[in-house]
Amino acid sequence: MREFAARLIAHETRGNKSFETRAAAAFLAGEKLRPQLSTLVGIAGYRALLSRALALAGPEVPWLRAVHVKTDGSFDGLDELGAQVGPEKTVEGSVVVLAQLLGLLVAFIGENLTLGLAREVWPELPLNSLDSAEGENDEKQKSRG
Amino acid sequence: MKNKNHAGKRKSEKKAVNLPARVAIRRLPTGVRGLDDILGGGIPEFSFNIIAGTPGCGKTTLAHQFVFANATAKAPALYFTVLGEPALKMLRYQQQYSFFDESRLGNAIRFINLSDVVLHKDLDAVLQEIIKEVTAANPGVVVVDSFRTVVRKAMAGASELEMQSFIQRLALFLTSWEATSFLVGEYTVDEMRDNPIFTVADGLLWLSQVAERNSVVRKLQIFKLRGVASVPGLHTIRIGDDGLQAFSRTLGLVPKATRPVRRRRLSVGIPDLDKMMGGGIPEGDSLLVAGPSGTGKSALATQFIAEGLRRGEPGIMAIFEERPRGYMERADSFGLNLVTPQKKGKLEILYLRPLDLSVDETMQEILDAIVRVGAKRLAIDSLVGFEMALAPGFRADFRESLYRMIAALTGAGVTILSTVEVEDKFTEMSLSHYTISFLTDDIIRLRYVEIDGQLRKVMVVTKMRGGNHSKDIREYVITDKGMVVIRPRSTEYDGLTTGIPRRTGPRQVQKEEAPPEPKAKK
Lengths: 145, 522
Description:
The complex is a heterodimer.
Chain A: H1 2-13, H2 19-26, H3 28-57, E1 68-69, E2 75-76, H4 78-85, H5 87-121, H6 133-144
Antiparallel strand pairs in A: 1-2
Chain B: H1 2-16, E1 27-28, H2 35-38, E2 43-44, E3 48-53, H3 59-70, E4 77-81, H4 87-94, E5 109-113, H5 115-120, H6 123-137, E6 141-145, H7 147-157, H8 160-176, E7 180-186, H9 196-200, E8 203-212, E9 215-225, E10 234-240, E11 243-247, E12 265-266, H10 271-276, E13 281-282, E14 286-291, H11 297-310, E15 315-319, H12 324-333, H13 339-343, E16 347-351, H14 359-373, E17 377-381, H15 383-389, H16 392-395, H17 398-411, E18 415-421, E19 442-451, E20 454-464, E21 474-479, E22 482-485, E23 493-494, E24 502-503
Parallel strand pairs in B: 3-7, 3-8, 4-5, 4-6, 6-7, 14-18, 14-19, 15-16, 15-17, 17-18
Antiparallel strand pairs in B: 1-2, 8-9, 9-10, 10-11, 12-13, 19-20, 20-21, 21-22, 23-24
Helix pairs in contact in B: 6-8, 14-17
């Protein structure tokens, strides 16, 4: 799941040369899931899932413990904390949170429906499996080609 | 007289007028096995329906089955979830059913959560949100689950008139957009009176759970369905791996097919018994074998099926007491092989003993098996075991249900042998405590008699609807060949039917039999 999340974030941050700009774009990957998930489970449902993902990411990324989810489902305090921990750790943190969020979805609705949701958000990516290696290779080949 | 002629003329004039064709209402399949028949063909297209009932009846599952049966990418289904079961849980649980095809989610089936609008805004905003989504998606099916929560929230701040107006605008809009819609809600029957939702709805499908003693059975009732002649009354439903399955209470109530005057006779595998019946069981008959425990009813049922298999007639054994293994072992001890025909798909042994069974479910199971193997013969062993397997609520109607079942099964072209256990009284010979002889064409009675210091077995054919039969009371034994009729009728005894006959003639010389009588080896 971690690799899959990393792949989505790499896709979102592609083209951003510096760590600073990549850090700013990293959490956008999770944000992109918000409309789809809010339509499915409501804003309150999305907020509950994201809060749980943050809580699960906390032990691994301690600085995320100070981040909260606002009523509209956006992150509260991310900019300030991101500036403190630096761009590299911000990108790492975004991967962990997204992986936890996707992991929750897999636990609730299964791998296929989770993949279906991800495909709706990133139709340009070949997302065949949550085992990132499969689609990633296709993607790499495409970019080489 | 004058008036009559005038009226007749008007009638013929009316006939001559070229009236516009009536609108044809297309029926949509529900995706629920058995329900389309109850609905008179399916759910009318563009109708506005309510699926109501208490929690746990299967309302959401029914809505899902309809959605999966009808949604396409071109005419998708919009499933609005409100404050009831969260969509995440809904998807989690519904995907366990076989009809759930996850590849259609997002494309043909879309879930939209309305909770925030319902919680924070008024009825107009809810309607506008639905209109917005429906206009954008152009769906063929719309579900609001649970609509009850919309109403509950709305009623807190809106008048009854506003509520009625909302429902009417919603119904009008959804129908105008050519959507077949369902409002799913938890209601009790008492709430139906004066409730605008039920007035506006074209269809009202009511699900309930009926408890009797320790058993609970799910029921379905079609309270109304405009434009369609649905089957009235309470129908049994069961939720299994395929979702809901409905069993019409009129399942099997079909006009009895006319039988040819001269019908083929089917051998039961006991030549002397065939002769007693005038050549065997007339094809398509229902034969009842009644007798006390240990008289060989199951043995006779096994021989009947095995003889059919030997003659290339596939069979079904629906057993309610003994386990299939016991059957196979008995057959094996008679030198009859039931294993190979099962492997070849010529025989199915249905062991039907779930709790809270209904006659309709049993009938459906047997009918399905008949189609699967192309069965010509069916053994039901026994009716007493069958009754015991039923939920208490169904036992009261057992006779009527059995009548429907036998009619449906013989209507399907099979010849039935049913067994029933009766208690032997030594003053009379009853046929069955069910008084069910009306549903059988033929009856064979087995009983014990005390003769010469032995408890022996005798049989007599008491009824053959399709022809004449022997009046003889014949003695039989169960050997390693199965049931064997061993002697011609006894003329030296009176009162054999009482079980304690009186000798009226000289004792016939007979070979002494080493007790116990030769019996099938296990």
